[in-house]
């Protein structure tokens, strides 16, 4: 997930500038940090009329075409990955019925780990060669992985095809989608990344329903193949429409060692890692949880689609507000409320209505948390190594994403089929992530009523 789009790099706390002078010093970049909330939003345009007022004004035709391709590519890749709960429930009753939920969830965890860990490498390749070679190779690998999954019957075959290869192919498509959109939109980074990431939520809403219908009509093999053909079409569209204005640079370092000495950046990465330990547990286990409450598997699939549909809104709408009100100001409470919703709703949900309410609320706030990570990283990063820093942050998230759902499954097994421990685990780590994000926000400016 790379890109070298200029973005706000928060200066040290020792530089004391009033909000107006600070706003005028970041011409053509992201929302100034900090920016007094008591000032009208229109004041920003008065201070610098060169700041673009719309996505079209900033990105033009190629920028909007890149957003479209990014949405479609994210729909096909991350949308499939976040729908693993559908496969989890199916495997538990069919091909992998001899395995525990924790063991099955390692397949989905491996997908996320490969996709995120590869972000650092893919980011460097993006800087050197641009998006097209990555998208083309990712399209081939991703489609091949789904076709191989349709033929799999043993645990190790699913781990190779749906775990490793699908994660690699998805990473080669998904990361350039994010990087290219961020490179084309500097001021509207939150909005543009929210639109692209919204594709994953839309895919997460469509794929479970599609798979549910196909499994009952054409069987597992052809259900997965049909999804593979759909993904192929989407990835081809992404390859043909996504472009980057950033000059190719083969001298970009693979790892930015200076970032390890940046306290704010490291705390943000720690927050991301903590959040990822619990973030994907609800989407992985909500179908099985619904069945445990006596609801049908179809209702469980519907709940997963509802959660992912809400996730779409949570990624797009907060991104627009974040460009106006501050990226930290939106991401910090979103992480908190995602965790609180697990305890306040999921822990006590035993009927369809309560589970649907949880799916909507968690989907909204989890979507906002995931949708703003790139914009938040951009805000605390210097422009010249933004792409490398984003890739490194995804590498930090990869291990927690790999082990989070299996840990949840192990807690479930230790309670002999009880879900309360798993739910509390997911909530705690979302809330811990909130604590560290809040710490960084206060490091930037101790006044909580400023745009950060």
From TrEMBL:
The protein's GO terms of the molecular function aspect are:
transmembrane transporter activity
As for membrane topology, the entry says: Multi-pass membrane protein
Fetch the PROSITE patterns from UniProt.
MFS
GO annotations of cellular component type = membrane
What is the designated name of this protein? Major facilitator superfamily (MFS) profile domain-containing protein
What is the source species?
Suillus luteus UH-Slu-Lm8-n1
PANTHER family referenced in this protein's UniProt entry, alphabetically: MONOCARBOXYLATE TRANSPORTER (PTHR11360), RIBOFLAVIN TRANSPORTER MCH5 (PTHR11360:SF177)
Look up keyword Lipid metabolism and say if it applies. no
Specify the Major facilitator superfamily (MFS) profile domain's residue ranges.
264-452
Q: Which Pfam families match?
A: MFS_1
Q: Provide the alphabetized UniProt keywords.
A: Membrane, Transmembrane, Transmembrane helix
């Amino acid at each position: 997930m790379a890109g070298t789009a200029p973005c706000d790099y928060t200066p040290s706390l020792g530089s004391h500038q009033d909000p107006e002078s600070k706003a005028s010093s970041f011409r053509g970049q992201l929302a100034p940090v900090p920016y007094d909330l008591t000032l009208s939003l229109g004041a920003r345009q008065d201070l610098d009329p060169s700041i673009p007022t719309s996505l079209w004004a900033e990105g033009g035709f190629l920028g909007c075409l890149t957003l479209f391709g990014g949405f479609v590519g994210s729909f096909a890749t991350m949308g499939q990955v976040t729908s693993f709960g559908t496969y989890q429930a199916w495997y538990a009753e069919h091909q992998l019925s001899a395995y525990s939920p924790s063991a099955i969830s390692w397949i989905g965890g491996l997908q996320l780990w490969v996709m995120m860990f590869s972000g650092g490498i893919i980011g460097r390749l993006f800087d050197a060669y641009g998006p097209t070679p990555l998208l083309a190779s990712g399209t081939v690998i991703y489609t091949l992985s789904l076709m191989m999954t349709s033929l799999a019957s043993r645990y190790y075959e699913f781990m190779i095809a749906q775990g490793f290869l699908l994660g690699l192919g998805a990473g080669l498509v998904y990361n350039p989608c994010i990087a290219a959109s961020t490179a084309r939109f500097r001021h509207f980074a939150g909005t543009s990344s929210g639109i692209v990431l919204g594709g994953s939520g839309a895919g997460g809403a469509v794929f479970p329903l599609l798979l549910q219908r196909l499994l009952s009509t054409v069987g597992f093999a052809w259900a997965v193949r049909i999804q593979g053909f759909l993904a192929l079409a989407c990835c081809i569209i992404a390859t043909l429409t996504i472009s980057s204005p950033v000059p190719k640079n083969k001298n970009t370092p693979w790892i930015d060692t200076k970032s390890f000495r940046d306290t704010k950046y490291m705390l943000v990465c720690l927050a991301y890692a903590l959040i990822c330990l619990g973030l994907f547990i609800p989407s992985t286990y909500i179908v099985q949880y619904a069945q445990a409450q006596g609801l049908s598997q179809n209702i469980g699939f519907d709940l997963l689609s509802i959660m992912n549909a809400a996730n779409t809104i949570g990624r797009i709408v907060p991104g627009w507000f974040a460009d106006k009100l501050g990226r930290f100001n939106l991401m910090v409470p979103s992480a908190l409320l995602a965790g609180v919703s697990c305890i306040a709703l999921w822990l006590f949900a035993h009927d369809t209505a309560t589970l649907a309410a949880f799916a909507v609320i968690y989907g909204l706030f989890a979507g906002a948390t995931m949708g703003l990570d790139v914009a938040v990283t951009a805000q605390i990063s210097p422009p010249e190594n933004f792409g490398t820093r984003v890739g490194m942050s995804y590498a930090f998230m990869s291990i927690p994403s790999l082990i989070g759902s299996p840990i949840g499954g192990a807690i479930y097994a230790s309670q002999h089929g009880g879900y309360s421990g798993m739910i509390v685990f997911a909530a705690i780590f979302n809330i811990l992530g909130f604590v560290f994000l809040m710490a960084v926000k206060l490091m930037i400016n101790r006044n909580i009523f400023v745009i950060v």
